[in-house]
Design brief:
The protein is an alpha/beta fold and 588 residues long. The protein is 43% helix and 13% strand. The chain folds into five domains: 2-52, no CATH class; 64-159, Glutaredoxin, CATH 3.40.30.10; 163-377, Rossmann fold, CATH 3.40.50; 387-462, Ubiquitin-like (UB roll) (Roll); 465-553, Up-down Bundle (de novo design (two linked rop proteins)), CATH 1.20.1440. It contains 26 helices and 16 strands. The structure holds iron/sulfur cluster.
């Protein structure tokens, strides 16, 4: 059925797999074979995609699949203890399916609920504000086999937690108003406003939006595409979740404004799997816009302005936030980043000229249409115009989403969110910048401390080493495995951090970590690998004592006892030469 619904389109493979799994509970081998036959694809390709995404299962995972968000913030809020408690109550081990096949419990990367954690996904749906009472109740609901639809509604309540409103979050928005103004300016006039505004991408890279849109407009080919990147996977980021929940009209209107500028006729919004609870709401907004003539053929009566939007669901792969990996995923493939050039603006979705913009970037274009590019550029700094949404979580009294003009200092933000005794702020998520106390005067801006939105606060009780170790585990888990430096390098980095944590570290390990940093930065195929060592190097430089107090020696120290490990072999062979023993403890 899923195959037919998607017109036997191979590019819809990921959506077909997601929908098939929704029906069966997992993807048995026969289903993969049947899908491959119907789509006329090699079975290995279908299996390769099914095996790539962490929310697709080729083995049964139980009627209830419970995944604990494993971000450092969730851990600080007690997620590990709650997971153990739930496992105990359900008599299941983490990562295993219960003996009766009803339930499995495991951890997953950050689910984007850092402002209301600890959080879990139950069969893909977010449950927030977990505590011992909720865990106990969830255990009894699972044991009783209660369908999810009958669970207490408040468990699935996701608050927006908007704490500070600026131009974007503060204004009431009338659907179609921005589009009317931009259309009145003409396509060229509208692009000129975007250029004047100085708008730069809010997804992290900060590329100039006007340059991207013009390149797509000028690329050969009439079938251009606008893609909204709503794969907000950076640990600690959730502002796009809030925009999609509370400002979906603006986001879709921004996509339509991009279509007006570039001449695109097709729009795709790639929604991260963790936010699938928003799917119904987003589809309803799309239906309203079609009914109002803001999507479809002849938008607002303009001949030749035809544009519509589809939503694609991701399935748990952080690397798909990288724009070329996202395009691969949209085409129904494994989310492996592409080699660039060519760039998506000329060779994007299915080889067509494609603009890929972040949710917040697209929402911001509605402001530019309504205020004009000059007024937009009057806020912020000359290199970073406009406002920025921050997702604030961690050790502060008021976690949530805050909108600030670019250029705001970190200490100003800390004061607003009620952070007492802040020691470290991790800006930009796991791949971002670790800011120590003496740097709190620095500013949020592309030219100083850039961020896609994450702002995680750690007070004096926290250990910067453990923060970095959590992020390194995240990268090792999320590496797509395509290139050796990242696949092996992130695993090695994780091994070094675990070795240090176990108290067996030596000074030489720190030197090896720095060498790995250079290797990953220079040889990785995409930004995931090159930014993976950032939190380790930052904390190593700024909080070196947190590392040095874990060292047992200033020389090389193995992570295990080689002499003891050889004991079994000696017994089996009957050979035990006293001169061949190595006691590293004596070597110190
Ligand atoms: Fe994949 Fe890592 Fe290589 Fe990027 S750097 S392509 S995530 S293995």
């Amino acid at each position: 059925q899923a195959v037919e619904r998607h017109r036997r389109e191979p590019s819809q493979l990921l959506q077909i797999l997601v929908e098939t799994q929704d029906g069966i509970g997992y993807l048995p081998a026969e289903a993969l074979t049947r899908i491959a036959d119907l789509l006329e694809l090699p079975r290995a390709r279908v299996e390769g995609v099914a095996g790539f995404y962490s929310f697709l299962y080729t083995e049964p995972v139980g009627h209830y699949r419970i995944l604990f968000s494993d971000n450092i913030i969730d851990r600080m809020l007690g997620s590990r203890g709650l997971m153990e408690s739930l496992c105990r109550r359900l008599e299941v081990s983490p990562g295993q399916v219960s003996s009766g096949g009803e339930v499995s419990v495991d951890a997953t990367s950050c689910t984007g609920m850092g402002d209301q954690g600890p959080a879990v996904l139950v069969n893909g749906v977010a449950v927030t504000r977990l505590d011992e009472a909720r865990v106990e109740r969830i255990a009894s609901l699972v044991r009783a086999g209660t369908p999810l639809a009958e669970w207490p509604a408040e468990y699935f309540c996701v608050d927006d937690n908007i704490r500070r409103r600026g131009a974007l979050l503060g204004d009431d928005f009338v659907p179609g108003a921005a589009l009317q103004v931009a259309m009145a300016r003409g396509r060229q006039g509208w692009l000129e406003e975007i250029r004047i505004s100085g708008l730069r991408g809010r997804g992290g890279a900060g590329f100039t939006t006007a340059v991207k849109w013009m390149a797509c407009r000028d690329a050969p080919g009439a079938d251009k595409v606008v893609v909204c990147n709503a794969d907000e996977g950076e640990p600690g980021t959730f502002k796009d979740r809030v925009l999609l929940a509370s400002q979906a009209e603006r986001v879709f209107e921004g996509m339509t404004l991009a279509a007006w500028a570039t001449g695109a006729r097709q729009g795709l919004l790639y929604l991260r799997g963790e936010y699938r609870y928003l799917l119904k709401h987003l589809r309803a907004v799309l239906a309203l816009r079609r009914a109002a003539g803001l999507l479809g053929a002849r938008i607002l009566g303009e001949a030749g302005f035809d544009f519509d939007i589809d939503i694609h669901l991701g399935a748990g792969a952080y690397v798909c936030g990288e724009e070329t990996a996202l395009l691969e995923s949209l085409e129904g493939k494994r989310g492996t980043p592409r080699i660039r050039p060519p760039f998506p603006v000329t060779h994007g979705y299915l080889g067509r000229p494609t603009v890929v913009n972040n949710v917040e970037t697209l929402a911001k274009t509605t402001l530019i249409a309504l205020q004009g590019g000059t007024a937009f550029a009057a806020t912020g700094t000359p290199q970073s115009t406009g406002t920025k949404l921050l997702s604030i979580s961690g050790d502060c009294a008021y976690p949530g989403v805050y909108e600030y003009p670019f250029g705001v200092t970190i200490e100003h933000v800390l004061e607003d969110c009620g952070a007492h005794d802040p020691q470290v702020v991790q800006v930009g998520g796991a791949s971002g910048v670790t800011i120590a106390g003496h740097e709190f005067h620095r500013r949020i801006a592309f030219e100083d401390v850039p961020t896609a939105g994450a702002f995680m606060v750690f007070d004096g009780r926290r250990d910067p080493f453990e923060m970095a170790r959590n992020f390194v585990h995240f990268f090792a888990h999320e590496s797509c495995g395509f290139c050796t430096p990242c696949r092996v390098g992130t695993a090695l980095l994780k091994g070094y951090m675990d070795k240090l944590a176990s108290g067996k570290g030596a000074k030489m390990d720190l030197a090896d970590i720095e060498w790995l940093d250079r290797l990953l930065k220079n040889a990785s195929h995409c930004g995931l690998g090159s930014s993976a060592p950032n939190p380790v190097i930052d904390t190593l430089v700024k909080f070196r004592p947190a590392y040095e107090r874990r060292l047992v020696s200033l020389d090389f120290k193995p992570a295990f006892d080689l002499d003891a490990a050889l004991e079994t072999a000696r017994r089996m062979t009957g050979r035990d030469d006293p001169g061949a023993h190595l006691d590293w403890r004596e070597e110190v």
